[in-house]
Every structure is written in C-alpha cells, then in structure tokens.
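pinned: reference chain
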Amino acid sequence: MSQAQNNKPSSRNDIFRTSNAPKVAQGLTEEQIAEQWRQVAHNMFVLRQNGEIVYLDVDFYTEGSRLIEWVHSEQDIHKFFLNEDNLFPLNLMGPAVTKVIPWNLAEAKDKLPTTFAGQAPLKPGYMIDLRVIQLNRLNANDPNFARLLNSGLDIPIQLESNSFDPIYPVPHEFEHQLSAPIEEENLYIVSFKNPERIRGIDDLYGYQISYISKEELDKVDNYVPNEDDKNEALKLDELKKEQTGQYLERYYGDTNAQIGAINPRDMAPHLLGAACYIANLRTMKKD
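pinned: its structure tokens
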C-alpha cells in the first residue's frame, strides 16, 4: 500500500470558520442553502486525549482514498470488518465510540482495498460510529427559518447473512484485548452513504468506514484550550474559534460527555460552529 502524503490534510473549511454559516443574504437558492447546512451538520469535532480539539470536515473523513470498507449497494461492496458471512464483529456493534482491537485487525488481514492511500498495516484505535447517533431537532422551530424539503427515503441494502448464527463475537482467548489500553488515537469513522435521507430501523443502509491515522490527526487544524478560558463567561453569540472551543471544553470535556450531535438549526446564529457531530475520546482513557 502506498504511504499517505506528508502534506497537511485540509478540510473544506478551517475550524469554526464563520463561512460555515449559510449566506442567505447572497441570494442563494433554497437548494444551495440546504447544501450549506448539510456541509456544517456532518462535520465533526474530536476531543483528543492530549487536550486538543480537532475538526474533521465530512469531505475529509469520507474521502475515497481513506475508505477501508463500504456497502454502497448490493453490487458495490468492499468488506474489511464484515466477515464472509456478512456479519459485523460483536465488539464493534452498538457503541457510538469503542475500541478497534488487534483481533479485529487480524481477522481483516489482507482485506484493504487497492484504493486505500494510507499507511499499512492499520493499527488499533477507536471506532466512531455516526450511524447510531442522530441530528434530530431538539429545540422548537425558529419561525424565521423556512423548512427545507428532506432528501427522501434511503434505499435499503439487500445483504443477507450466510450464517445461522447471527453474532460474530471476540473469541474468549482474545477478550483480554477489550480492556487493554489503546496506545494511539487512530480513528475508524463509520458514516451513512446518504446521511440526509430517511431510514427505518429494520433494514441495512449504505455506509462506509474510513481510517485516519494518529499521524494524520496530528496535522489536522486544532484548538488547544487555554487555562485562563474558564475565568471568562462563555460568549454564546460568537462564532469564533475560541468561543466554540470553550463551549466544547465545558459542555463535553468537563462533563465527560462521550458523544453528541447538534442540528445546526438548533444553534444558529449562536455557536454555529459547534453544531455537528462531537466525540470525546478522553472518556476512553483510564487514569
């Protein structure tokens, strides 16, 4: 496999940049405004164990050369964690944030796609599964916002298991890996192929899994909290990097909240930069 490029990965927008906000005054069409909301909503903040907060643009973490597994249709499938019976490892099913252990990677040996441009072999890390959290509205509707039409129903994937046993557990002799610490913050991010579409609970829908190494994560735009930040009142009407970072530190870092998702329409015009997915990896670190 080819090694990832050494230049700094660049997201479409810098961290917390106010240009994330839809520019209604510029005369954009309803479809263009809707697309800008989507670009904000599916970005992600990660609170790292070293104290940094990094910002991952959706185009960055779903970029094709980072994908290690995908089920986009019955004909367009590449298995990495999925086994030959189309079963997902039991230790990776359910949690929004969990560990990818050495056993998972040993089971997936030699299954990287040729399109993957990162450095192999992959290392243990943390899986963030965005499929199990939602960007549902939590506040009352703002009367000043026009309600945009949804993108319709997602299409179920007809993928059947070849096994009578519906689970794919970690063998007992490898269960000790579940409690072992993860040495590096390598990320495995699972996301829907069509995140804006409506899905039921009884079917499998198109998804992909990307891999972002610690080395890549170290180069991504970041925010480092200042010790004096907590001496200041939180400015909720600001869109600046510092104010959004302070919000994330207080409402996720200080509370040890592990995962969150805020719809941009529940925040605008206040702290719009924080309206997206949020994962706090500090909760996975044992003292």
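why pinned: The chain has one domain: 18-284. Residues 125 and 186 are 4 Å apart (CA to CA).
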